[in-house]
């Protein structure tokens, strides 16, 4: 595949206010006007050159910003590539991508703790209107920032094996219903809850060696799966942060077949023969355009771009 990046990468703004200034954030934040474009900032937490020509940032921009059309200003920040962490007041919606790194690498990542500080500020700020999403490593980093060391570790399966497949997740209907109070336009939530499945299940792409083992205090669990008990949850004082272990931004042809499979299976050999067979079988009937994955992604966008 030979495609140019879909969105231009621009340099981030200055770093976040540090811990001794956190007390001022609640007093300073102003909810963005619905007449202004939403500022969507994608933090790319991976610096591998394998993700070319289409990067994590490109995939997030394509599936979370582009479908909304006008009214969204998208900025991609290569945080793991050396660009600066954006300031608290420079975005309305923040996305934390997946990564080849894990939480155990935190001492070697100079941006890790400042990013955790930013996550805590978003979670605690009331009335700001800010939203955030963490995917895979981003999901784990948010849990670590809000709960602390020990809440994320290797997959709790026999042998702590890497997981790569299209997996069916179980959505928790009662918990999803609670989100009506934090989504101004609940049409996407209604569509998700009306999927023709009982119990409510959606097939998604999963690719991870670690999992969130303990939820942050106050989090609401929205979905579970055989490979991850805490597959999707919301957290924050205003439930303004959503975290997913699966990859809603991944497609099968490029992300899985051309990138993840070559790295995880062919190069690193992290799957044994039975796991390879199971993964291949799971992908046979997977389509991101099927009603389940499509509606789930629409729900995530609705959560992120909530405005009153």
Would you spell out the secondary-structure blueprint of this structure?
Blueprint lengths: L21 H7 L9 E6 L12 H10 L6 E6 L15 E4 L15 H13 L6 E5 L1 H11 L4 E3 L8 E9 L1 H5 L9 H7 L7 E8 L1 E3 L7 E5 L7 E4 L5 E4 L7 H16 L5 H12 L6 H14 L4
Parallel strand pairs: 1-2, 1-3, 3-4, 4-11
Antiparallel strand pairs: 5-8, 6-7, 6-9, 9-10, 10-11
Keywords:
308 residues; alpha/beta; Rossmann fold; nine-stranded mixed sheet; two-stranded antiparallel ribbon; disordered N terminus
Give an overview in words.
The chain has 308 residues and is of the alpha/beta class. The chain has one domain (19-304): Rossmann fold, CATH 3.40.50.880. The chain contains 9 helices and 11 strands. The strands form 2 sheets. A 9-stranded mixed sheet has the order 2-1-3-4-11-10-9-6-7, sandwiched between helices. It has a two-stranded antiparallel sheet with strand order 5-8. α3 (112-124) crosses α4 and α6 (187-193) runs antiparallel to α9. The longest helix is centred in the last third of the chain and has 16 residues, at 252-267. Mean pLDDT is 87; it is low at 1-31.
């Amino acid at each position: 595949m030979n495609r140019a990046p879909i969105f231009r990468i621009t340099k981030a703004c200055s770093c976040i206010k540090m811990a001794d200034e956190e007390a001022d954030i609640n007093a300073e934040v102003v909810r963005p006007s619905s007449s202004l474009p939403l500022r969507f900032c994608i933090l790319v937490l991976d610096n591998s050159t394998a993700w070319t020509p289409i990067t994590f940032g490109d995939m997030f921009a394509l599936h979370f910003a582009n479908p909304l059309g006008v009214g969204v200003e998208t900025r991609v920040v290569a945080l793991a590539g050396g660009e600066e962490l954006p300031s608290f007041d420079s975005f309305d919606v923040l996305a934390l991508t997946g990564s080849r790194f894990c939480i155990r690498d935190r001492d070697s990542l100079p941006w890790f703790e400042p990013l955790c500080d930013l996550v805590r500020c978003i979670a605690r700020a009331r009335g700001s209107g800010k939203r955030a999403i963490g995917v895979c490593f981003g999901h784990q980093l948010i849990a670590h920032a809000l709960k602390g060391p020990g809440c994320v570790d290797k997959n709790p399966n026999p042998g702590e094996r890497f997981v790569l497949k299209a997996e069916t997740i179980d959505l928790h209907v009662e918990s999803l219903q609670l989100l009506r109070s934090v989504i101004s336009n609940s049409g996407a939530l209604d569509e998700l809850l009306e999927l023709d499945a009982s119990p409510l299940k959606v097939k998604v792409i999963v690719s991870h060696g670690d999992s969130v083992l303990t939820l942050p205090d106050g989090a609401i669990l929205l979905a579970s799966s055989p490979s991850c008990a805490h597959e999707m949850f919301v957290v924050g004082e205003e439930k303004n942060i959503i975290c997913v272990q699966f990859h809603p931004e991944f497609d099968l042809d490029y992300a899985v077949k051309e990138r993840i499979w070559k790295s995880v299976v062919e190069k690193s050999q992290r799957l044994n023969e039975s796991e390879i067979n199971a993964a291949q079988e799971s992908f046979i009937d997977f389509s991101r355009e099927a009603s389940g994955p499509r509606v789930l992604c629409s729900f995530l966008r609705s959560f992120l771009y909530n405005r009153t």
